Amino acid sequence: MIPPDHPRYRSLMTRERLAAAARDGVLAMEGLTAHGRGEAFDYLIGERTTGSALLAERTAAALLLSARHPVISVNGNTAALAAPEIAALQKASGAIVEVNLFHRTEERVRLIEELLTRAGVEVFSGTAERLLPLSHDRAWCRRDGMYAADVILVPLEDGDRCEALVKMNKTVIAIDLNPLSRTARAASITIVDELTRAVPEIARACRELDVGERERLVSRLDNHYLLAEAIREITLRLRACSG
Amino acid sequence: MIPPDHPRYRSLMTRERLAAAARDGVLAMEGLTAHGRGEAFDYLIGERTTGSALLAERTAAALLLSARHPVISVNGNTAALAAPEIAALQKASGAIVEVNLFHRTEERVRLIEELLTRAGVEVFSGTAERLLPLSHDRAWCRRDGMYAADVILVPLEDGDRCEALVKMNKTVIAIDLNPLSRTARAASITIVDELTRAVPEIARACRELDVGERERLVSRLDNHYLLAEAIREITLRLRACSG
Questions:
Q1: Which of A18, A61, B67, B193 could form a disulfide with B53 if both were Cys (CB 3.0 to 4.6 A apart)?
Q2: Which residues contact A3 (CB under 8 A, 6 or more apart)?
Q3: Which residues does chain B have within 8 Å of residue A38's beta carbon, measured at their own beta carbons?
Q4: Interchain pair A178, B3: CB under 8 A
Q5: What is the ipTM of this complex?
Q6: 243 residues of chain A, pLDDT tens digit each
Q7: pTM for this structure?
Q8: Chain A residue with minimal CA distance to B39?
Q9: What strands lie across the sheet with B151-155, from one edge to the other?
C-alpha cells in the first residue's frame, strides 16, 4: 500500500500497475526492464513536461491531423500504462490503432486488443503479414494499417523498427524518454516525455489547433533542436545535483 | 528471439537472462525495473568503465584486502547477473558471501544460494536473525556474517539498508550506476559502473595490489570526488551527443 502523499506516488503506482500487467501476460518481462530505463530518464528531466516536449507534442498533433492515413502503434507497455489515454487520442485525431509487439505471441496480441477495447479503443485487427523489412516477429503488421500509414505514432519503440519505418518514407512520431536512443535520433520527431503525460497533451492539441497553427508547426519541425533541448534539460539538472 | 545482428544484442540478452531469472523466482519483478534504471545510467556513462570508476574499484579492492571481516552481500539481481564473477572475487579477496534480499522469502534465499553454489561460491548460510535497524524483511542478516563485518560490499543496494550499514560504522562499498541515488551518496565508496564490469576489476585489483598501493588508495579515498567525476562523465557524454 503506497501512501498517496508519497513524493513518488505516481511513479510507484505505475510500477505496481506494470508488475500486475506482467503477471497477467499483457506485458513481457522485458517490458518491465524497459520501463525502468524510462523511469531513470524521466527522473533526469524532472518528471515533468518540459517546454520543448510540449512543442513536440503540439507538432505531433499537427502531423496526425494533417495525415492521410495516421496510425498509432501500441505495444504491451503502452497498453498497460495508457489505454484510456490512447482511446481519447484516437477520438481526437481519427487515427487507426494497431497492436504491434516486439515480443510477439498471438495470445499477447489478443490480451492487449481486449484491454484496449475495454478502454474504449476501436482496434484495427485485420490479418497481420510480415511486411516490414525486419527479421523475426517485428516484421509483422497489417497491409491496410501500419503498412499503408503516412504518419505513424510509435510510443516506446525499438530502434530497428523506427529506422525501418522511416526508410519506408513514413513520418514517424516517437515518444522516448531517452533523447540519445536510436529511436529518438531516427524518428521524424521525438517527444521526450513520459507516456501518460505525453498522450493527453497530443490529444489536447488535436482538439485545439487550427489549420494555420498546424501548418506553422509542421513547417518549423526541427527534431535536432528538440533533442538538443531535452539533453540540455538533463545537463542542467545533473549540474544542479552535483553542485 | 533477439536477432544477433541487433546493435544492442548484449544488453537485450542480459534483459532476457533477467526475465528468465524472474520466471524462475530468483529475481523479484521489482528487480527487473531496477535493472532498467541501471541500464539507463550505464548508457549515459557510455557502457564502459570510466577512469574514476576504475579508481573506485581499485580502492574497493584495497578496502576488502585490509579488512578484518570482509563480507559481500548478494541479492537476486547480483546472483542472476554475476554469480561466476562473485565466485572469482571471493577467491581473490577472501570475503564471506552472504545472501540478503529486499523482497525476502525463504524460497528465494534457497534458490539464490543454490545458484551461487553452482557457480563456485562458498555461501555463508548460518541462521539469519533480525539484526539491522530496519523495518520488515530487510533487517535480516547473520550474526557472524554481515552483522560482524567491518567492510561490506553491497552491489545494487537499497538506500535505506546502505544508510543503516553506514550508521553501524561499517565501511560500505556500493556498486550503483546512478551517482545521484541515496545509496551512492550514503556509501563510504561508490563504484559507478555496471556490475559485470565492476566485480572482475575489483577481483583483478585484489590479485595485483601490493601493501603500499593498498594503503595509498585507502588514505586517498574521497567519495565526493568519485561521484562528481561520474556526473561529469555523464554531462560530457550528453554534451558530445547534443553537439
A1: B193
A2: A9
A3: 36, 40
A4: no
A5: 0.80
A6: 566 776 667 777 888 888 888 888 888 888 898 899 999 999 899 899 999 999 999 999 999 999 999 999 999 999 999 999 999 999 999 999 999 887 788 889 999 999 999 999 999 987 778 887 877 677 777 888 888 899 999 998 888 889 999 999 999 999 999 999 999 999 999 999 999 999 999 999 999 999 999 999 999 999 999 999 999 999 988 887 765
A7: 0.86
A8: A37
A9: B96-99, B70-74, B151-155, B171-175, B189-191
